Amino acid sequence: MTKRMILPLLFGLIGCAILVSLGTWQVKRLAWKEATLSEIDARIAADPVALPDELSQPDDLYLPVQATGTFGAARLRILVSQKKVGAGYRIISPFQTGERMIMVDRGVIPIAEDLPNGPLGEVTVTGNIHWPNEVDSYTPEPDTKRDIWFARDVERMAATLGTEPVLLVLRTATPATPEIIPLPVSRAGIPNDHLSYAITWFSLALIWFVMTGFLLWRIRQRTV
């Protein structure tokens, strides 16, 4: 090995080591994320409990709850888009259960349909407590003239409907409102890209290794 090859060799080995370590870290993150998603699935599907007196994030995120009460006449429409379905409105309604008034995300109706009349009398609802993270600096303000919201903002929706800042995302209701299709809480919106990141880092490490070998070969050829 000539002196001219030492620096490229060190540079190549250090670069490969860094890229392999990044890929290994992503593999560890993948295992952690899969364990976290499994815990979320188990929590979502657990047996429902009565509505607690106090709720807090993140301790009660996805908490399964069952409650009996009546829907109020008011409601909010949240514009949503579903793959292979198209545009629709999430329907958020106030729900009186005992002495408490909370919000229920009842599900979605097609954008061209009018909101059906709610069930009269008591309804038993089962769902999961949620604090959706949908509002950012690009979210438009609610269009009050057309009665359209563009994201679920628990605090703001509660202030508008006059309820507690508690949102129950419906899984089932008895009796049901067939025209409104529930959109239960799921882990579908939680990203898990660690496998693709790991493959990318390991691929870059392989390319770096091959290019280092090619460079060393070129240097060797010039010194022969």
UniProtKB/TrEMBL annotation:
<keyword id="KW-0472">Membrane</keyword>
<keyword id="KW-1003">Cell membrane</keyword>
<dbReference type="InterPro" id="IPR045214">
    <property type="entry name" value="Surf1/Surf4"/>
</dbReference>
<protein>
    <recommendedName>
        <fullName>SURF1-like protein</fullName>
    </recommendedName>
</protein>
<dbReference type="Pfam" id="PF02104">
    <property type="entry name" value="SURF1"/>
</dbReference>
<comment type="similarity">
    <text>Belongs to the SURF1 family.</text>
</comment>
<dbReference type="GO" id="GO:0005886">
    <property type="term" value="C:plasma membrane"/>
</dbReference>
<keyword id="KW-0812">Transmembrane</keyword>
<keyword id="KW-1133">Transmembrane helix</keyword>
<dbReference type="InterPro" id="IPR002994">
    <property type="entry name" value="Surf1/Shy1"/>
</dbReference>
<feature type="transmembrane region" description="Helical">
    <location>
        <begin position="195"/>
        <end position="217"/>
    </location>
</feature>
